[in-house]
Amino acid sequence: MTLALLFPGQGSHFVGMGRGLADAFPEAAATLQEADDTLGFALSKLMADGPEDRLTETRHAQPAILAHSVAALRVASARLGPISMAAGHSLGEFSAHVAAGTLTFAAALGAVRLRGELMYAAGEERPGAMAAILGLDDEVLEAVCAKVDAGTCVPANFNSAGQVVISGDAAGVEEGMRLAGEAGAKRTVRLNVSGAFHSPLMAPAAVGLREKLDDIGFSDPSFPVYSNVTTAAVRAGGEARELLVRQLTAPVRWGASVDNMVRAGADRFVELGPGSVLCGLNRRNAKGLPCASVGEPADIERLGGHA
Question: What are the Cα distances from residue 171, in Å, to 127, 156, 178?
Answer without folding.
Answer: 11, 16, 11
